[in-house]
User: Which sequence fits this backbone?
């Protein structure tokens, strides 16, 4: 409430062109949300985002689990993971355009490259942090490799995997907007550049607010999932 | 019978940048009879936990042999059950699942293990806590879970690695009391690693005194106190004398400062 009041006051002083007040953004948002173009933009954006994120999770989690479980695999893979981690992901966008052209596939690739590495390194960290005394205990009671994985390593790594998913979601949302801004003319990114270019700042803010809200809802869902899967230990991390 | 013959364990470590080898155990020999309760006592760092984990098949050794009823130990087996110093409970499941963990690994279905699991939960005095998670239990209760888990697989040999080392003194005495009751009823073979002299004498038929660097058996002492035992025997002269004797021996064994 305090934040919203401050926003309202600041907006009225600075002026709607640069910094519209909360009430103006709200009016713009209500108008937007009833327009079919806006709904279509949300659908287009999310198509790339959801597919890209799911692919990132489907590839990143197994890779992280494998390289975290077997130190040799980790030593082989980690230099590459480090390179990926350090590469400014935005700089890959021209490459994707060259390979995939401008379209859904290309946008999925951008979202994937934004989210993948964070999902993978978190899953790996979770595996590595498995308590050695629990592994020893399971050995003592005769656990086979598959039992070690399902009963010790996987539950141990689960909170870290979920933390990776949460970071991955926020990165996927960022990747979605970046792809649309740099590849031009689709989804919410198109609306952002259009409203920005035509100085409809209240609509620009409303679009951004929509993206933030969606991101928060997804994070909340991820946390709900984490509470169900790993109620014994809810990881702390970015929200 | 457990026959430990001339065990040698060599560790390599870095010291001032160059590799140094040292003997964790050298010429360690000991025999434990069936149905016997034997404690291994020694100063910290003497290799007693290492030896116990070798008997469990968790740690390899360089020379020598460990035979259980004539068969050489090559890995963990269903004839042995271990109780760990740090409890090693699964934080993500409740008491029932923790106690049943060993049976679960052996493929015993949940319905079939329930009766056994509940029996041992009762035996260690944890009835009413079946659905608690480890973090909701005190240290002493957590080790009761560890003990029930080891007993639930019904091993012939119980291996206990300083099981009461990290609980407070009062809880420790209660746990000792309960362990001695459970053991007297079960007549399992038990090897109990500890650095507590009173605990070693109170529980054991024999106490093996270890010396450090390299770890080996200095002396095996027989505890000729009648069973069933209770706290009263701690006041008897033979108990006090034995304790004094152990202390005299251990006093001279302080590790050189390193």
Assistant:
């Amino acid at each position: 409430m305090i934040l919203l009041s401050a926003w309202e006051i600041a907006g009225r002083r600075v002026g709607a062109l640069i910094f519209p007040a909360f009430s103006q953004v709200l009016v713009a948002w209500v108008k937007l949300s009833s327009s079919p173009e806006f709904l279509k933009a949300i659908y287009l954006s999310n198509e790339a985002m959801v597919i890209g994120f799911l692919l990132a999770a489907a590839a990143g989690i197994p890779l992280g689990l494998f390289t975290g479980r077997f130190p040799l695999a980790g030593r082989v893979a980690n230099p590459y993971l480090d390179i990926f981690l350090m590469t400014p992901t935005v700089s890959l966008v021209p490459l994707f355009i060259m390979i995939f052209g401008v379209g859904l596939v290309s946008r999925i690739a951008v979202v994937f490259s934004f989210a993948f590495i964070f999902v993978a390194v978190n899953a790996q960290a979770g595996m590595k942090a498995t308590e050695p005394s629990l592994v020893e205990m399971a050995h003592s009671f005769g656990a086979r490799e598959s039992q070690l994985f399902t009963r010790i390593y996987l539950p141990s790594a689960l909170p870290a995997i979920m933390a990776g998913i949460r970071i991955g979601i926020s990165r996927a949302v960022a990747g979605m907007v970046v792809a649309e801004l740099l590849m031009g003319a689709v989804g919410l990114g198109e609306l952002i550049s259009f409203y920005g270019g035509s100085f409809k700042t209240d609509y620009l803010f409303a679009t951004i607010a929509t993206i933030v809200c969606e991101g928060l809802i997804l994070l909340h869902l991820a946390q709900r999932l984490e509470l169900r899967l790993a109620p014994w230990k809810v990881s702390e991390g970015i929200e | 019978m457990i026959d430990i013959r001339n065990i040698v364990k060599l560790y390599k470590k870095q010291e001032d940048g160059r590799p140094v080898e040292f003997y964790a155990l050298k010429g360690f020999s000991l025999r434990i009879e069936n149905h016997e309760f034997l404690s291994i006592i020694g100063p910290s760092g003497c290799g007693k936990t290492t030896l116990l984990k070798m008997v469990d098949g968790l740690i390899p050794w360089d020379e020598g042999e460990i035979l259980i009823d004539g068969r050489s130990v090559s890995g963990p087996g269903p004839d042995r059950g271990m109780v760990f110093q740090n409890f090693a409970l699964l934080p993500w499941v409740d008491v029932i699942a923790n106690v049943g963990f060993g049976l679960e690994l052996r493929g015993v279905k949940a319905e079939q293990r329930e009766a056994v699991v509940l029996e041992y939960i009762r035996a260690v005095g944890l009835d009413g806590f079946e659905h608690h998670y480890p973090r909701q239990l005190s240290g002493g209760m957590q080790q009761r879970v560890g003990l029930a888990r080891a007993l639930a697989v019904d091993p012939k040999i119980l291996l206990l690695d300083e099981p009461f080392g990290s609980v407070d003194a009062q809880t420790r005495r209660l746990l000792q009391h309960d362990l001695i009751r459970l053991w007297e009823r079960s007549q399992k073979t038990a090897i109990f690693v500890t650095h507590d002299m009173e605990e070693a004498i109170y529980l054991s038929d024999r106490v093996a005194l270890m010396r450090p660097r390299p770890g080996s058996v200095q002396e095996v002492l027989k505890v000729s106190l009648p069973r069933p035992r209770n706290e009263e025997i701690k006041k008897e002269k033979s108990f006090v004398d034995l304790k004094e004797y152990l202390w005299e021996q251990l006093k001279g064994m302080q590790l050189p400062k390193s």
In short: Chain A touches chain B at residues 131, 133-134, 136-144, 147, 151-152, 155, 158, 230, 232-233 (CB under 8 Å). Residues 234-239 of chain A have pLDDT under 50 and may be disordered. Chain A has ten helices and no strands.
